Amino acid sequence: MSKLIIFLLATLILSSNAAVQDFCVADLKAPESPSGYSCKSVTNVTVDDFVFSGLSAAGNTASIIKAAVTPAFAAQFPGLNGLGLSAARLDLAPGGVIPFHTHPGASEVLLVTQGSITAGFVSSANSVYLKTLKKGDIMIFPQGLLHFQMSHAGYTSVGFVFFSSSNPGLQITDFALFANDLPTKLVGATTFLDEATIKKLKGVLGGTN
User: Fold this and answer.
1) Cα separation of 68 and 161, whole Å?
2) Where does Mn(2+) bind (predicted)?
3) Disulfide: which of 115, 145, 165, 171 matches 153 by Cβ 3.0-4.6 Å?
4) Which residues pair with 108 in a beta bridge?
5) Are residues 46 and 149 in the same domain?
6) pLDDT in tens, 14-35
7) pLDDT confidence tier of residue 136, bands split at 50, 70 and 90
8) Does residue 47 sit in the same domain as residue 150?
9) What per-residue confidence (pLDDT) applies to 54?
10) Feature table: binding site
11) Residue 130 bridge partners (DSSP)
12) pLDDT band at 9 (very low <50, low <70, confident <90, very high)
């Protein structure tokens, strides 16, 4: 009987190990779903799927926000697919800002590696958590909450952010309000801004109506 039990246990362990899927490298040729990309065939997976060098170079900060975000999400780094993590690089020129935004699908950790970055988030109770971070400091932004980052150094500040999802999602508040065809009167009614200000912001960000 004991030999039979040992045999059955060994069989269960072996079948359990055989059923484990170590990874699901994204098949970028297939459509993405809310749960991520489908898996590329293991026979086509190489070590390069698990290596990404895109965060080594500074982003282009010549934009209206004087900042750049270089993502390392599943779409850029297929090996992350399904693993529940991702990263990005932030480059902020003097006065650069990553405007108020949310990540519906992930919490975020910011690590400052150069300069100083003032960062903060607003809780669902409208409490503000604000701090100027120096090199080596980290700050966490809970999932779904509005947050921002802004450079206060006299030179470009750099940070790296890490997310609890391979596709954290992104919605920038200013763009959601002023970079589309949402009617000006409706924006005014829901934000208490005057129409002249709304039209000016729409003009800057490319919105209409």
Assistant:
1) 13
2) 101, 103, 108, 147
3) 115
4) 141, 163
5) yes
6) 555 445 688 999 999 988 887 7
7) very high
8) yes
9) 95
10) 101, 103, 108, 147
11) 120
12) low
Q: Could you list the residues known to form a binding site for oxalate, using ranges.
A: 103, 108
Residue 113 carries which side chain, given as an amino acid letter?
T
Q: Which of 49, 86, 76, 75 is nearest to 160 (CA)?
A: 86
Average pLDDT over residues 67-82: 94
Total domains in the chain come to: 2
Examine residue 13 and state whether it is found in any structural domain, yes or no: no
Amino acid at position 1, single letter: M
Domain containing 182 equals 176-205
Rounded to the nearest 5 degrees, what angle is found at the Cα of 177, between the Cα atoms of 171 and 180? 95
- Residues 155-177: tens digit of each pLDDT: 899 999 999 998 898 998 988 88
Q: Which residue type occupies 14?
A: L
pLDDT at 43: 92
* Binding residue ranges for Mn(2+): 101, 103, 108, 147
In a domain, 28, yes or no: no
Q: Are 86 and 162 in contact (CB under 8 A)?
A: yes
CB 36 within 8 A of CB 166: yes
